[in-house]
Design a protein that fits this description.
This is Intracellular septation protein A. With about 210 residues, this protein is mostly helical. Helices cover about 75% and strands about 0% of the residues.
Length: about 210
């Protein structure tokens, strides 16, 4: 019997985490030698454009990488407008705060975002909500994602407030690929532990009202 796909495989988590890490690598590479905001943002934009070019060359769907490029451009514009290098990470800080709120609310109102994301990837729309076991599993696993964003905020905000640009860039790298990989692994473990024995899995919701 084939093993069920993991969340990382379904969501292309490893690739997405790597793509998201590279602009921060570029920023750090530009910032460290010169302590220049222009050099840092140029390095980030070069890496972001490289990611887009590589993914398009491989025939990947451009939507995700183009959104990533847009986010890097907005972050660069914010930093260049304020003249503060740490503001390159302001958008990331705000998005993590908004994510904590959005994911928490989604769990409370019983529309967990993890279920919405996986359901959209699998073409199920919201059919998974009619499966009480899947609804419970997605809700519990979504708390792992909330914790991920809380960890980022707890580390990013003090570094941002202290204007520790180089450390902030390094933290941004370390808290992207490793943290996302860990979050995907733990949330997948929570889903597996929550679903009862004999459940057909994420691709096959049991269509019955909660």
């Amino acid at each position: 019997m084939a093993q069920p796909e993991s969340l990382s495989e379904l969501l292309n988590g490893r690739r997405a985490a790597l793509d998201a890490s590279l602009p921060a690598v570029g920023f750090l590479a530009g910032w460290l030698p010169f302590h220049s905001l222009w050099a840092g943002t140029a390095g980030a934009l070069i890496c972001a454009l490289g990611v887009v070019g590589w993914r398009l060359h491989r025939g990947d769907r451009p939507r995700a990488v183009l959104i990533g490029l847009l986010a890097v451009c907005v972050a660069a514009l914010i930093a260049l407008h304020t003249g503060k290098a740490e503001d390159f990470f302001l958008l990331q800080l705000l998005s993590n705060g908004a994510s904590v709120l959005a994911w928490t609310i989604s769990i409370v109102i019983r529309w967990p975002l993890l279920g919405l994301i996986v359901g959209a990837v699998l073409g199920q729309r919201t059919r998974w909500r009619r499966d009480p076991d899947l609804l419970k599993a997605y809700s519990r696993a979504s708390w792992v994602w909330v914790l991920q964003y809380v960890i980022r905020l707890a580390i990013f905000f003090p570094l941002y407030a202290a204007n520790l640009v180089g450390v902030l860039a390094a933290a941004r790298i370390l808290l992207t690929w490793p943290l996302i990989a860990g979050c995907l692994a733990v949330s997948w473990w929570v889903i597996q532990r929550t679903l009862p024995a004999g459940h057909p899995g994420l691709r096959h919701p049991v269509d019955r009202p909660a």
